[in-house]
Amino acid sequence: MDRKTSSSHKPATHVDRLGMVAKRIAAGAALAGAALASTLALSAPAQALGTGPEAISTGSPCSVQGDLEGAFTASSQMPGYLKCVLPDVEAWIDYQYLDMPHPASYQFVPQGVSGTTPSGCAFDETSLAYCLGDQTVYLGESAVWKLYQGTGDAAPALVVAHEVTHHFQNYIGVGRATTANEQIRYENQADCGAGAFMAYARQQGLVDGNDDVRELATALVDVGESEGPHQSHGTVEQRVRSFYLAYSSSLRLPMAECIPFVPETPIIGAG
């Protein structure tokens, strides 16, 4: 992802930038979902360790001009990375919705920190999750660094967009799954939402479609699930297809491509 100018966005009203990755994935696999190991956090550890999560300001300036790839060299620098990409995610929200409240906050969870929110959501350094109870996205230091270092600078931003799509689902009221298999369509829709964000980022000149998107395929191989009674996320094929449904769309608002996953409650106006 290239840093050009700061994106403008309206401030969050509810209690509630990307990258270029490696060039070694065949174009046919090009996609994203980028370690979209998202969970609507449930159970939690009994006690909190460390000082607690740190709120990442979406209004702070990015310290990098140009490509974010390789700009950060340690996991402890991931808050700086997030300050570069979160304003783009926030601008994307306002681009496609007229009155969508933003997530309450984006919380960075440093190594050694773990705990439970008052609403019952668990968090630690491996978290990549949206908490329904407090409408907050939790981003663990180890998880974000693993994506950034191992897959590329677009990958963590993709995950954020996936989680923010869960926020849209929550706010719009698309319903909640009662079994793991029922959750698959909501997760596929969130992968589709990540594709809509990447389409927006490409339109804004923030990503290189020949590098960023292609490289995300690496992570997808790891996060797709095999079919079975406990499957809650799509298979690799399903996640790739879901992402590309929106990413390759010619619609002004690619998110509209994601409606069929939960047609009874459209996630965005079809027009």
TrEMBL record:
Signal peptide residue numbers: 1-48
Instruction: State its location(s).
Output: Membrane
GO annotations of cellular component type: membrane
Keywords tagged on the record: Membrane, Signal, Transmembrane, Transmembrane helix
Query: What broad class describes the main subcellular location of this protein?
Result: membrane
Which InterPro entries would you find in this protein's record?
Uncharacterised_pept_Zn_put
**Pfam short name (any one):** Zn_peptidase
Membrane association type = Single-pass membrane protein
List the protein's name: Metalloprotease
Please tell me the species this chain comes from: Rhodococcus wratislaviensis NBRC 100605
